[in-house]
Amino acid sequence: MTGETLLKNMSRPENSAIFAGLYGPEGINEARNRYSKLVRGLTGLPPADEKDVRVFTAAGRTELGGNHTDHNHGKVLAASIHLDAAAAVSPRQDNKVLFRSTGFPDVEVDLGGAGEKAPALDLAPREKEKGTTEALVRGIAAEFAGRGITIGGFTANADSTVLPGSGLSSSAAVEVLFGCIFNQLYGGGKFTPLELAVFGQKAENNYFGKPSGLMDQAACASGGVIAIDFKDPQNPQASPMPFDPEALGYSLCVVNTRGSHADLTPDYAAIPREMKAAARFFGKNTLSEIRAEQILKNAARLREAAGDRALLRALHFFNENNRVDAMKAALEKIKNHGGESFFQDYLKLVHESGDSSWELLQNVYSPKNPAEQGIPLALALTREFFHSLPKGENKMPGACRVHGGGFAGTIQVYLLKDQMEAYREMMETVFKSGAVTELRIRPTGTAELCFPG
């Protein structure tokens, strides 16, 4: 539909439910204004086709359990959130992609192959594009073309509310957004959210040049809370899980510790490398192919072959996998039987996950910069806050853990809703205004939004 028609349809009161489902009833007006601005801005990006204007969204994500397990084909529990990447998009007649995103330089990628006598599509990785958005566009386009899809270009005017460096997967949200756009414009919508997640991961690994697992993209794409088993990485098994912390009287938030992410890639890369080194000791590629008992029985030889930290990180992997199963079981019991006690079991597991990441995985600060320990400080202050609260009978005041990749960035916190403002005041005194962000779990991961007239 035209941009003008789309704007009229978005303003219709009966379509407010679309925005409410993504951003909550309190976010309807802000969302409508945001998407309207994106649509209006698209007309200033030639050669956008004003007769075919569409809007897309891809969620950020929060990791609930399974810290650094996906790259070794383990298990995770994650959820899409209300913070997202959104875009107004028009297809183009050529094979160029023009992507404008608020606060960032324009991205233009020529995919080649346009015109009757044009050369073949130019979708091979380019060394000079490594580490850029251009690499992600080209890599995702290559995934579609490699599956027989006749792709084309598009012009997009985008905006992201996913905080960079927050552990909420701003980059994965953009990758999934590109996948959704190609899928709807040229793929007939035939690819599933998990398939789009795989496309994004491959582009990040092979074109962008960053080693990563699949959890970020899968959670951004899928919607709601999902438990994912990556034992078969080409066919990950995902199952939706019911979960609404607010309904249980708790807020879910992240705290940005304002740490620098500069030069952390070697720290991130060392985790999968060391876990896989432990697996190779047994002739396997990933830890998912062996059992925890093998690690324990061969600990003496393994530490000599791979090092102490590799052994500790392997132990974290197996313990964290078991915790994900236990968290799933707790959420199933809440769904089937109700009762506060099962959520208390869940919170205890969150706390254990935080301890394991701190002690075994060792991703709460960079060993290259031991004086900067924002994440341990935030965890310690949060626990002090919990200790200061009145002791409820058989009721934990909350739980906290490192969030996402770690080394710098954010922690994740569950706490009683009536303590949210007091907690925010304490943490923002230390980590500055805006450090605490409440999260809303949303049911939609990535999608084209359709507004009927």
Outline the structure in words.
The radius of gyration is 22 Å and the shape is globular. The termini are close together. The chain has helices at residues 3-11, 16-23, 28-42, 133-145, 170-185, 193-208, 215-222, 265-280, 292-297, 299-306, 308-337, 340-361, 374-388, 420-431; strands at residues 54-65, 75-91, 96-101, 107-110, 154-160, 225-229, 237-241, 250-256, 398-403, 410-416, 436-438, 446-449. Strands 1, 2, 3, 4, 5, 6, 7 and 12 form an eight-stranded mixed beta sheet that branches. Strands 9-10-8-11 form a four-stranded antiparallel beta sheet. Helix 1 (3-11) runs antiparallel to helix 3 (28-42), helix 5 (170-185) packs across helix 6 and helix 6 (193-208) runs antiparallel to helix 7. It folds into two domains: 3-241 and 442-449, Ribosomal Protein S5, domain 2 (2-Layer Sandwich), CATH 3.30.230; 245-438, Alpha-Beta Plaits (2-Layer Sandwich). With 453 residues, the protein is α+β, with helices and mostly antiparallel strands.
Quick structural overview:
Helix content is 43%, strand content 18%. It is an alpha+beta fold.
Q: Which helices and strands appear, and what pairs or packs with what?
A:
Layout: H1 3-11, H2 16-23, H3 28-42, E1 54-65, E2 75-91, E3 96-101, E4 107-110, H4 133-145, E5 154-160, H5 170-185, H6 193-208, H7 215-222, E6 225-229, E7 237-241, E8 250-256, H8 265-280, H9 292-297, H10 299-306, H11 308-337, H12 340-361, H13 374-388, E9 398-403, E10 410-416, H14 420-431, E11 436-438, E12 446-449
Parallel strand pairs: 3-5
Antiparallel strand pairs: 1-2, 1-12, 2-5, 2-6, 3-4, 6-7, 8-10, 8-11, 9-10
